[in-house]
Write a structure and sequence with these properties.
By secondary structure, the protein is of the alpha/beta class. It is built from nine helices and eleven strands.
């Protein structure tokens, strides 16, 4: 029996509360097309579209919008970059489905859960709320934790605030754009020694951590990057899709690092 894009979309949307208020959905393609192979990625970039075509996928499930903004406003008529990207997707025969809210609104948040899992800390969770997971690990230095993160996420670098020798026991983890003061400071005011997040305003949480450290508080921050913090959750989605739809192969496409430091 053939599997359509709509059947896969229904499975994802069944996990989504408040379906009327979402950015999720099929952005490009025909929902009644049969699926030959599924590609999953964080971002539907030109690079990812070409990789998806190379592996024979005709459905790309991505976390973020192809239109470079959260609300999916399609401005391709007036923007040549967006126009050419959409033309490329059509030429390659790739439908693009965005799965953002369904993953974040599950309990627990699937994107955060994927990050915690890849950091091998799922057995150490002591609290998991709507936006963060808190774990307790054997006392380690900030430097040891950064080495652990880079090895497990296969990333070359992280940004951090704190002394490498600072001792850490309790860690709160927030994936994606959740590094604002409103989210992070309440965690640091508790017994959390370290907050790990994807990204956030640099004049908020980093400045708070800098001043807290200057006053003698052991409050440390590691900033992974948005993509680096959310790709693990998309890899977790791959495993779920393979389990639910075993007759259609699903493959994760990692994005190559593209922000360079000189």
């Amino acid at each position: 029996m053939s599997l359509t894009i709509r059947a896969i979309a229904n499975w994802m949307e069944d996990k989504l509360p408040n379906k009327s208020e979402t950015v999720d959905g099929l952005l490009i393609g025909n929902e009644y097309d049969q699926v030959t192979k599924i590609a999953v990625a964080f971002m539907p970039s030109i690079e990812v579209l070409k990789k998806a075509a190379k592996i024979g996928a005709n459905l790309l499930i991505c976390h973020e919008s192809p239109y470079y903004e959260h609300q999916n406003r399609d401005n391709h008529a007036s923007n040549p970059v967006i126009k050419e990207k959409m033309e490329l997707a059509a030429e390659l025969g790739i439908a693009i489905y965005r799965n953002h809210d369904s993953l974040h609104r599950q309990s627990p948040d699937m994107i955060t859960a994927g990050l915690v899992q890849e950091l091998t800390w799922e057995e150490k969770i002591v609290e998991f709320d709507a936006i963060s997971a808190t774990v307790e690990i054997p006392e380690s230095s900030l430097e040891e934790i950064m080495i652990h993160i880079k090895e497990n996420l296969n990333i070359q670098s992280v940004r951090y605030i704190g002394s490498l020798a600072n001792k850490v026991n309790t860690i709160s983890i927030l994936a994606g754009f959740r590094g604002s003061a409103a989210n992070v400071i309440p965690l640091l005011q508790k017994k959390t020694d370290l907050v790990i997040y994807g990204e956030g305003p640099e004049w908020e949480t980093p400045e708070y951590a800098k001043d807290a450290l200057a006053l003698g508080y052991n409050k440390n921050v590691i900033i992974l990057g948005h993509m680096e913090s959310e790709e693990p959750g998309m890899r977790l989605l791959v495993h779920q899709l393979q389990k639910e739809f075993p007759k259609v192969r699903t493959e994760f496409i990692a994005s190559d690092p593209f922000i360079h430091y000189s």
